[in-house]
């Protein structure tokens, strides 16, 4: 599923990793994912959910009251830590959000919506700042109309076509086999 992550979602997870490593946490939590989503000012969650404007409030609401001192964080150690159980759940919900919109790529806005899909610290912080799941879905759709995703990989398109026309393909193959059998019989 990580191969489906769009660049903005990968950056958000990278920043979440940096945040967790900076605080010496053993795993990336939903709090870190939320803070990772606030790092960039020109990404879909920043435009859709106005996260950059509320970054300080969101950080304080999830118990991370300070901003790192650099705009692009580097704390000296390049350690990758795993997602905790809630972080994994958020990624799974992000996949569902992208699938619901019938998109291959999982964007940072899908990740933001995923945080609101189940009870957690990030969801409570977002709701306290007035961020609503349904409003985010509408705003995401409007944003995607203005800036569409990059194309779906060809194999994914072929897989979708095969799934859609599975019965017709199966019938054609059966008829082809019957025709071949009858031709061999004489």
Describe what is shown at a glance.
The chain has 186 residues and is an all-alpha fold.
The helicity comes to 55-70%
The dominant shape is: elongated
* CATH homologous superfamily caption of the largest domain: Clp, N-terminal domain
- What is the count of DSSP helices, taking H or I runs of 4+ residues? 10
Tally of strands: 0
How many discrete structural domains? 2
Rounded to the nearest angstrom, the distance between the terminal CA atoms is 51 Å
The largest sheet, given as strand count, sense and whether it forms a barrel, is: none
User: What is the CATH first-level class name of the largest domain?
Assistant: Mainly Alpha
Structural class, from secondary structure content?
A: mainly alpha
Strand content: under 5%
Give the SSE map.
Elements: H1 7-22, H2 30-37, H3 44-49, H4 55-61, H5 85-100, H6 108-115, H7 121-128, H8 133-146, H9 154-164, H10 166-185
Structural account:
- The chain is mostly helical and 186 residues long.
- It folds into 2 domains: 2-146, Double Clp-N motif (Orthogonal Bundle), CATH 1.10.1780.10; 154-185.
- The chain is 61% helix and 0% strand.
- It is built from 10 helices and no strands.
- The protein has helices at 7-22, 30-37, 44-49, 55-61, 85-100, 108-115, 121-128, 133-146, 154-164, 166-185.
- α1 crosses α6 and α4 (55-61) packs across α7 (121-128).
- The longest helix has 20 residues, at 166-185.
- The termini are far apart.
- The model has no long low-confidence stretch (mean pLDDT 83).
């Amino acid at each position: 599923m990580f191969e489906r992550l769009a660049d903005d979602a990968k950056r958000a997870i990278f920043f979440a990793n940096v945040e967790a490593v900076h605080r010496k946490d053993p795993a990336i939590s939903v709090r870190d994912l939320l803070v990772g989503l606030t790092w960039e000012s020109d990404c879909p969650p920043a435009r859709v959910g106005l996260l950059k404007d509320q970054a300080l409030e969101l950080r304080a609401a999830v118990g991370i009251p300070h901003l790192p001192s650099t705009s692009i964080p580097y704390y000296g150690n390049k350690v990758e830590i795993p997602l905790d159980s809630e972080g994994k759940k958020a990624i799974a919900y992000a996949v569902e959000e992208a699938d619901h919109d019938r998109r291959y790529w999982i964007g940072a806005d899908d990740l933001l919506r995923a945080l609101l899909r189940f009870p957690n610290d990030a969801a409570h912080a977002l709701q306290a700042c007035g961020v609503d799941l349904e409003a985010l879905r509408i705003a995401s759709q409007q944003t995607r109309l203005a800036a569409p995703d990059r194309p779906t990989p060809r194999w994914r398109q072929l897989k979708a076509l095969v799934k859609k026309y599975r019965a017709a393909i199966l019938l054609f193959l059966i008829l082809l086999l019957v025709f071949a059998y009858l031709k061999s019989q004489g």
